[in-house]
Design a protein that fits this description.
Chain lengths: ~290, ~300
């Protein structure tokens, strides 16, 4: 299946057989009997998490567990904010995530355009080598990557999380494929009018590439926000931690206070969840075309 | 003519320069943080090093030591059990869920969102949620299972159940991804094919088995390959939920190599494990693709 076909298919998945029946058809389909249990199993853990995050400590130690919120202890959330450098982790993660999104958009656009449209010496070889890095699992390269980052004196800084992730093979590949689907005539006309390559990229190609750029941005956001193994290896100082790593340490420090732990994690999930609800179609397209999961 | 020739030559020369100027920031990053580490890791696997003092060459010693290492063997066995359970459950489960979701029902958007949401939940949040749901004393799972006369189970804290608990947790987190891919493919199936089968008198089950399933072959192959690769690379969930335990009950290769390299200071040996794992993944992928080629028919 070609990349473009997959994108088209993913587009359709995002749109859905969306057509909910119009009008007042109240026929009950037996499919609901299949779908309701599935939906409940998928959602209940999350719902219970939110309920627990609003309970008192005593209520969390109650058996049988209550699935109905018995209290609304919003204080748990403010308590968490005071107990852990939560705001700091939040800002760190935001800085890293936005830097990686911006880096990927810029560098992958430039490289993707060069690989799609400009004939330059060594282009095919460079492209194949870039694709090769997609096939090697991260665990294989993790030790040398750590050594390289250490030799750059970036260990225990946000730079360790940003620099290696400013551009990726996936983004280059995806954008190259997308740029190749755009009509080349527009660019040729602009070139005859004396436009530079940079001008063509920014004034003609990128404005036509909104969906592809949005998909790359959303996927990079999710991936960076949820990354765990790399921060675990490169960051030690609690002040430099990302939210995922910080919460993993928080979990160790507050093993017994389930309600606070849940509150902390509900907060950590909010940005990605909000992004998901507002940009669901880009998520779905990105996920369907890449197989990336945070 | 001469002027035009010079212009073209200048344009071609500038293409080389501009092309590299555009590509070089990304290429440089990928070379430094992608390609060099691949080669370096291969070299490391032939060395004895603790990442601090200078390394020295030991030839194939790291690789020779692997078959004699009981913990490595255990890790591979756990990984095999995990993969054999995770892949069928998440792929077949994903297919059935996608088929159920692929129809214009009232509230279908709500169902779909419910199935997709776990995909964007981070691993650590997933783990925290399941440690709580699977809590032996206060957890929802034991309470619900108790209602039908099962359990109580110790889940993550029992050496027999920990690995299976990880399977259940990761299937929950991954199934939405498979559903998304299957849903995309289902919507690509031409309506005429299904209608033709209906006219020929095929029942719903017959259409599913003889029309839908074969057409989904390529996607199924992709998902089997992709889920297997991810299953063999399992790490985050193990590190966060059980830390390899109880005892060594949930040791898997990536967790073991992480322990060796970053807590044990045995980086060369860890690199050898990484390469063996890579080889296993590569061979398994090739076998799956070859078997798939015989079974899967691509649309003309």
């Amino acid at each position: 299946m070609s990349e473009i076909q997959t994108i088209e298919l993913a587009e359709r998945a995002a749109e859905g057989p969306a057509a909910e029946p119009k009008g007042g058809r109240f026929l009950f389909s037996s499919w609901h009997l299949v779908l309701i249990p599935i939906a409940v199993v998928m959602v209940i853990p999350l719902v219970w998490m939110v309920i627990t995050s609003l309970q008192t400590l005593d209520q969390t130690r109650h058996y049988p567990p209550s699935l109905v919120p018995t209290s609304m202890q919003v204080r748990n959330y403010t308590d968490v904010l005071q107990q852990a450098p939560f705001a700091r982790w939040f800002v760190n993660t935001l800085v890293v995530t936005l830097a990686c999104v911006a880096g990927n958009l810029l560098f992958c656009s430039l490289a993707g355009y060069a690989f799609a449209r400009i004939r330059f010496f060594g282009r095919e070889l460079a492209f194949i080598l870039i694709l090769a890095t997609l096939m090697v699992p991260f665990q294989v390269v993790i030790i040398p990557t750590f050594l390289i980052v250490r030799s750059l004196h970036l260990i225990d800084t946000l730079g360790a999380l940003i620099l290696p992730n400013l551009a990726g093979a996936f983004g280059i590949f995806m954008l190259r494929q997308f740029f190749r689907t755009l009509p080349v005539e527009l660019e040729e006309a602009a070139r005859i009018d004396g436009a530079s390559r940079l001008g063509i990229l920014f004034k003609i190609v990128l404005p036509l590439s909104g969906p592809a750029l949005a998909t790359l941005a959303v996927i990079t956001f999710m991936w960076t926000w949820n990354d765990f193994l790399w921060p675990l290896i490169t960051i030690y100082n609690p002040n430099n931690m990302t939210i995922q790593l910080g919460l993993a340490t928080f979990q160790g420090a507050h093993q017994t206070n389930t309600n606070l732990r849940m509150a902390a994690h509900v907060m950590s999930m909010l940005p990605v969840l909000l992004l998901f609800f507002f940009a669901q179609r880009y998520f779905i397209r990105g996920i369907a075309t890449t197989g990336l999961k945070g | 003519m001469a002027v035009r020739g010079a212009n073209i030559r200048r344009a071609v020369t500038s293409d080389h320069v501009v092309g590299w100027a555009f590509a070089s920031p990304a290429v440089l990053l990928i070379v430094v943080f992608g390609l060099i580490p691949i080669v370096w890791s291969a070299l490391l696997s032939f060395q004895k090093t603790n990442l601090l003092s200078p390394a020295h060459w030991v030839g194939l010693a790291n690789y020779r030591a692997l078959p004699k290492d009981p913990l490595f063997e255990q890790s591979m066995v756990h990984s095999a059990i995990y993969t054999v359970l995770f892949v069928p459950f998440s792929v077949a489960g994903g297919l059935l869920t996608a088929v159920a979701l692929n129809r214009p029902l009232r509230g279908i958007r709500i169902y779909r969102t419910a199935v997709f949401v776990p995909v964007v939940v981070s691993t650590i949040a997933t783990v925290i949620i399941f440690l709580w749901v699977f809590d032996p004393n206060f957890g929802l799972a034991n309470w619900l299972l108790g209602k039908v006369g099962l359990g109580p189970f110790a889940f993550f804290t029992s050496s027999n159940g920990a690995l299976y608990s990880i399977v259940a947790m990761t299937v929950w987190g991954w199934i939405g991804f498979n559903v998304i891919v299957y849903l995309a493919a289902l919507q690509g199936i031409p309506r005429e094919l299904v209608e033709a089968a209906e006219i020929d008198g095929a029942g719903a089950l017959g259409i599913f088995r003889n029309v839908t399933l074969p057409l989904l072959g390529p996607v199924t192959l992709f998902l089997v390959v992709w889920s297997s690769i991810n299953a063999l690379q399992l790490f985050d969930e193990v590190y966060l939920a059980t830390n390899g335990g109880p005892g060594t009950a949930t040791y898997v290769p990536v967790f073991y190599l992480y322990k060796l390299a970053f807590q044990g200071g045995i980086a060369g040996y860890a690199a050898a494990i990484a390469y063996v794992l890579f080889a296993v993944i590569l061979v398994l992928t090739i076998v799956q693709l070859m078997v798939g080629k015989r079974m899967v028919h691509y649309a003309p």
